[in-house]
């Protein structure tokens, strides 16, 4: 059996094993769960502004982000956010709660390896490349903006 036949056979095997998803229910669940997460964030922000009427709007948004990150980290720690992610897909990943989950989840998974080699090393294994690319791309955009 040559390499081309092996590749075709392997591709057929992989295609048979990949779980089939139904596009409409997946997209619908992603849309409404992401919307509910954003609705919760808006509710927290509006509540802060109602309770503290002298608070600046940007300060309220900062506290809202802190609350959303804490809630997502807590739900990840007790295993609930993973179930939400399996159900909602991208709807749970795109908001800031998904970023919180991407940092918290490896930290929870590798906590048995100790604080240094478990938590500290593995915490940014998923989110680290995102942070690096985000910082580098913002520098490039800033330089382009500065030049032009």
From TrEMBL:
TM regions (residue ranges):
27-45, 60-81, 126-147
Tell me the superkingdom of the source: Bacteria
Q: Which UniProt keywords apply?
A: Membrane, Transmembrane, Transmembrane helix
Q: Does the keyword Membrane apply?
A: yes
Protein known as = SpoVA/SpoVAEb family sporulation membrane protein
According to its UniProt entry, this protein's organism is Candidatus Caccopulliclostridium gallistercoris
């Amino acid at each position: 059996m040559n390499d081309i036949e092996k590749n075709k056979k392997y591709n057929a095997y992989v295609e048979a094993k990949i779980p089939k998803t139904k596009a409409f229910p997946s997209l619908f669940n992603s849309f409404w769960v992401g919307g509910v997460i954003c609705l919760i964030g808006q509710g927290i922000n509006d509540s802060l502004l109602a309770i503290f009427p002298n608070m600046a709007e940007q300060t309220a948004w900062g506290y809202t982000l802190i609350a959303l990150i804490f809630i997502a980290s807590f739900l990840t720690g007790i295993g609930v956010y993973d179930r939400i992610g399996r159900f909602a897909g991208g709807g749970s990943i795109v908001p800031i709660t998904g970023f919180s989950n991407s940092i918290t989840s490896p930290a929870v998974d590798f906590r048995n390896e100790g604080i240094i080699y478990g938590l500290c090393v593995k915490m940014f294994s998923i989110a680290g490349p995102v942070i690096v690319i985000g910082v580098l791309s913002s520098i490039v955009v800033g330089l382009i903006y500065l030049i032009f």
